[in-house]
Amino acid sequence: MSTTTAALPDASLLTRFGIGDAHCHPQDDPHDAGRRVRDLRTPCLAVMGTRAGDWGAVEELAKAAPGKVIPCFGVHPWFAHLHALSDTQLSDPAALLDSPPNGKDAPVNHPQLLAAMSGSRSRSSGSSSSGSGSGGTSPRVQPPPAGTPAGGDGAPGPGPGPGGAGVGGSGDEGCGCGPSTSAGARGRVRAPGEWLGELRRLLGEHPGALVGEFGLDRAAVVPGTRLKPSFAHQLALTEAHLALAAELGRPVSMHCVQSYGHLQDLLRRLGPSGCPPKIMLHSYGGSVDLVKGFTRLPGGVGDRIYFSFSSVINARPDRRAGLLQRLAAVPPERLLLESDQSSADRVDEGMRAILADAAEARGMAVEALAAAVGDNFRAFFASSLEAMAKQAQRQQQQV
Ligand SMILES: [Zn+2]
Questions:
Q1: Which of 202, 235, 269, 374 sits in a 20 to 30 Å window from 196, CA-based?
Q2: Residue 130: its pLDDT value, please?
Q3: What DSSP assignment string belongs to 126-150?
Q4: What is the pLDDT of residue 175?
């Protein structure tokens, strides 16, 4: 995704100043992804899982590019309806979906979707029940229901550009997040013991891992329908992720579209003991006023908030002015940059583009800005980088 500025800053700045990609999804384009990630000029990538079905692919990438990939595990709101928090939701999957207020659709209109959600597992013979390792590299194991633009859970595959397949991407609060992740928005609902247990296990196994990505999205629509992942359930899932991250002392990367007020209320209610040590609002699309609202959250919670930006939304020129305003509004020490790309091939370019945009927005020389965001990256990801260094040390000793 290219920026509208003429020349991009040199990729060597990324390496020289240690500017990592704070949020991306290269696991969505899995062919030889480890090598392509290792070859990047961007020195480090926080690779976001989006659902139980792709955590295995994230883990694989972290193994294939050790020291370069910070694995992150969470449930993106586009897939909220596939991750239950109670056993009753398993038996009544319609409760995980919201109908549009205009009454123009309802879960009952989508029997195939409901059947898939309630686990018509008979045809999904290759579908593992653990979810781990099934994402990314495995071939599609289940034919998609009729009219579905995307395959069953666990079959992400390389994706198109942002705003794909009817999920997310609408509204003025842009998040080009996980472009290809609409693949997999249909499938069976996972029991809480299954996915939450797996999430905990992965975080335990990867002490440098973040919890992410997860959050709130009022614009998300289940592909092929006008149904949305239940917002009440999105809120409950978000709280569950925050609680786990707070308990384990992990930073988080959060997605938020048209829900910033709810998110602020939730963080205020949870307070310092219920909030994670660091909170990244990825592809921040809220208002300039809300920036202050977040950084002034009481009890020191405001000091934990970072704002990350990508140039993906520059694909829409009408959004560029808003991006530049937001880039200029965040406190300098809380600014992170991300590509938000779903293929390693576009990470370096995405990082160079947002670097240029951020320098322009803040009226800084590119090198000065690069130095500052390199520092911010190391500050936000300090615990991850430390854990990865220790792991590398241990592996060296074992050799
Ligand atoms: Zn994302």
A1: 269
A2: 36
A3: T--SS-TT-SSSSPP-SPPPTT-SS
A4: 56
- Kindly give the distance from the C-alpha atom of residue 383 to the centroid of ligand 1, in angstroms, as a whole number: 21
Looking at per-residue pLDDT, the higher value among 22 and 122 belongs to 22
User: How far apart, in whole angstroms, are the C-alpha atoms of residue 161 and residue 102?
Assistant: 29
Residue 176: inside a domain: yes
Query: Which residues are near ligand 1, the ion (C-beta closer than 5 Å)?
Result: 48, 177-178, 213
Measured in Å, residue 394 CA sits from the centre of ligand 1 at 31
Phi–psi pair at 214, nearest 5 degrees: -150, 175
Identify whether 3 is part of a domain.
no
How far apart are the CA of 176 and the centre of ligand 1, in A? 7
What's the CATH number where 324 sits?
A: 3.20.20.140
Q: Say how many domains are in the chain.
A: 1
SS3 267: helix
Cα–Cα dist 58/47, whole Å: 7
Report d(CA 306, CA 338) in Å as an integer: 12
What local confidence, expressed as pLDDT, does residue 313 receive?
Answer: 66
CA gap 390, 139 in Å, rounded: 35
CB atoms under 10 Å from CB of 258, counted, come to 18
Q: pTM for this structure?
A: 0.86
Picking from 58, 54, 53, the residue whose alpha carbon sits closest to that of residue 69 is 58
* CA 157–ligand 1 middle distance (angstroms): 15
Q: What pLDDT is attached to residue 125?
A: 35
Q: What is the pLDDT of residue 160?
A: 29
> Using CA atoms, how far apart are residues 256 and 76, in angstroms rounded to an integer?
10
CA of 164 to the centre of ligand 1 (A): 13
> Which helix (H) or strand (E) segment is 274 a member of?
helix 260-274
How much is the pLDDT for 241? 98
Phi, psi at 22, each rounded to 5°: -75, -10
**DSSP string of 135-191, one letter each residue:** SSSSPP-SPPPTT-SS-BTT------STTGGGSS--SSS-----GGGGTTSBSPPBP
Residue 395 lies inside a defined structural domain of this protein:
no
User: What residues make up the domain containing 73?
Assistant: 12-384
Is residue 27 predicted with pLDDT exceeding 60? yes
